[in-house]
Design brief:
about 325 residues, alpha+beta, two-stranded antiparallel ribbon, 7 strands, about 35% helix, flat
Amino acid sequence: QIPAKQMASVIATLLLVIRVLTWLSKSRYYLTVIVKMLTGAASLLMNADVAKDSSNSGQPPSSDSVKKGRKSLGKTGKPLGGQKGHEGATHLFEEDVTHREEVLEDIEKYRNNPLWIQVKETRRQILDIKLERVVIELVNREFRNTETGETVSGEFPDDANTNLQFGLTLRTFVVFMRDHEHIPYKRLTELIFGLFNLNIQESTLINIIKEAETSEVIRQFKEAAKTEIQESEVVCADESSVRVANPDPEKSGGKNSWSHFLVSKLFTLVTLSWSRGKEGADASGILEKFKGSWFMTAGRLISSTAASTASATPTY
């Protein structure tokens, strides 16, 4: 069987011969039809061995397969890993050692024996994490002066306003896994139970997320981000559709909305709106005081109130 590329080369040679014959022949009509047919066949054969993807066809990017890594350059005869003479990098020892263990059993037998002297000491460290469930009990005691009747007692902190409250570390873990890693609530409950042996309901996770969104720390961050973006000369904007829970409790399923991204040198602010385009970006309240230039990531200028020298296709 002749490979497609070789067959295409043969057809290309025949096309050249036929074009010469067409020029010399009086029956150019028939030869022109043959040339067109062979040209189409050559095009099909040339593209037969070319893999189709979103870059060379009308296929969507989601249909692209995972590209294979670079092929080996061949056997060099050298062993794997770092070569002799190459300056490597070694992890340094940690100074803050949590726990120290002696590898030699019955070390006191040799350490306190005058017949034995230490001649060498080597160390190795294991850096690990510890996942454990911690219960901190706060006790508030009240004392009364038997002579004056005066009483004194402490005050519970703000994050311990009920008999059992979830701590800051756990709540931070929930917010990070849900909002940053986009783990569904049900899977997040399973993850917390598997890691910490803590049975927590999905409704509790939702309340933790809502409390975090309205916290003072998040409010201060949003204000700082908005101020910095409003004072920037150039801000890049983008939007992406996202499926969110339906706001109508009587209706199940999700609803399409739009995430709007506002990017400056220091901050990336993400807001959610039911509208797309400039209308959705205006919902953040930043455009009202913004004096610079806005650009979509594709380079299309949304609005500009800055100097006329601003480029509509900025470089990144």
